[in-house]
Amino acid sequence: RRLYFDTHALVCLLEENGFTTQQSEVIVSALVKIMNTNLDMIYKDMVTKVQQEIALQQVMSHIGGVKKDMIILEKSEFSALRSENEKIKLELQQIKKQVTDEITKVRADNKLNLNLEKSRVKELYNAHGRCLNKVQFEQHAQQDRALTQTDRKIDTEVADLKTMLESHKLDNIKYLAGSVFTCLTVALGFYRLWI
């Protein structure tokens, strides 16, 4: 252990200022003891380079283990999310196909019903065309009412189908947004853990 002052020079300085040789040596030895005890206290709290390197290697090995675990978790979680997203996409495509099929069926049925109604109205009009003007006007009014009612029915059914289609679209968008936000949340969580 090194002393960072000259003890002999300190003894000489004390003797010059009126201390005896024995007093000067006692004071210097007391100062050396105090410094040694202070250095012992300081060294107790300090870490050697070897201990620091061992601790650093332990921390690095723990970080390496955590990195491996995170990579494994990331691969398994992302593969699970991808498969879930693929399933949702397939379900959405099936729902879209079903909705479009239903819409085409309803449109075809409505067109058929409309054509049947029109042909029936035309037949009634031709059959009763020979009747009196009053009867013709009354029948014509009844036919117009029937046509407007069928048009209203068709319009309401088309509007109902449109609202149903919009609600399905909104549900699909919600599911897609939820899955995208779930993926982003998991990715940000891994990113935050990584950093």
TrEMBL record:
The chain crosses the membrane at residues 175-194. Keywords: Coiled coil, Membrane, Mitochondrion, Transmembrane, Transmembrane helix. InterPro entries: CCDC90-like. GO terms for biological process: calcium import into the mitochondrion; positive regulation of mitochondrial calcium ion concentration. The keyword Transferase does not apply. It is found in: Mitochondrion membrane. Belongs to the CCDC90 family. This is MCUR1 regulator. The gene is Mcur1.
